[in-house]
Amino acid sequence: MNTYSGSLSWSNFFSRLLHRHPGRAAWVFLQVGLSLVLMEIDIFSHIVEVLAWYSNVGVAWIAAMVSDLVINKKWLKLAPPQLVFHRAHLYHVNPVGFGSMIVAGAVSMVAYYGAFGPTAAALSPFIALGVAVVLPPVVAAATRGRWYVARESVLPAGDELPCSVCAGSYDRADMATCPFHGGTICSLCCSTEAACRDACKPSAWRPPKGSVPLGMPKFAPDKELEVA
Fold first, then answer.
1. What does the pLDDT look like over 196-219, one tens digit per residue?
2. pTM of the model
3. 106 in helix, strand or coil?
């Protein structure tokens, strides 16, 4: 189970960071190799501290996601109601979720090592939980939700659209427009494209000055393909 989930994580990580996807099998071998190395260096002798890190950072990650999905999207409407997953429509980093997770994890680990006293050290996972739940709405309100969607795509009609890179046909919800390839592109090819340098977005790291929050991708049934 760990090998399977680990291969998924490595695949997503390197696809997003390096835009390379050599296949899931490569990440299976990497995950197994790392596991063997950890066992050989006797990771089990440090298992308590490893689990402490895992619990604090893991709780911060999960709580930040839940807070963003439930509080920001559903209750306070500080984020787009739909899930935006295409690289073509996202900034590299959204401070609402990622930033909240980093801050919550860092605060809880400082507490774990005794900076706030023995009681806070014992309750450090709960500190991670509390900070990660509170921060996403605060950051989303402060940034006005501008880091959720980097741009929109105007897609042609059809339940399925062709990918201009792999030539496959995919559900319209999985597609985006791509000025680099001059057509539509599926989410996997988009995430692993290394040569485009995010040509579809004027700024991949932060919203341009004066920008306003964008909605979800729009569909234009009677229009020719346009690139937003």
1. 989 998 888 988 876 656 544 444
2. 0.81
3. helix
**Assigned token pair, 189:** 């090819």
Check whether 61 has a pLDDT greater than 70: yes
Amino acid present at 170: Y
Q: Which two tokens stand for residue 92?
A: 């590299």
Q: Which two tokens stand for residue 73?
A: 């999207």
CB 161, CB 61: distance < 8 Å: no
**Number of C-beta neighbours around residue 63 at 10 A:** 23
Q: At what angle do helices 47-66 and 100-112 cross, to 10 degrees?
A: 150
What is the distance between the alpha carbons of residues 191 and 204, in angstroms, rounded to a whole number? 13
Residue 157: count of CB within 10 angstroms of its CB? 11
Read off the DSSP letter of residue 46. G
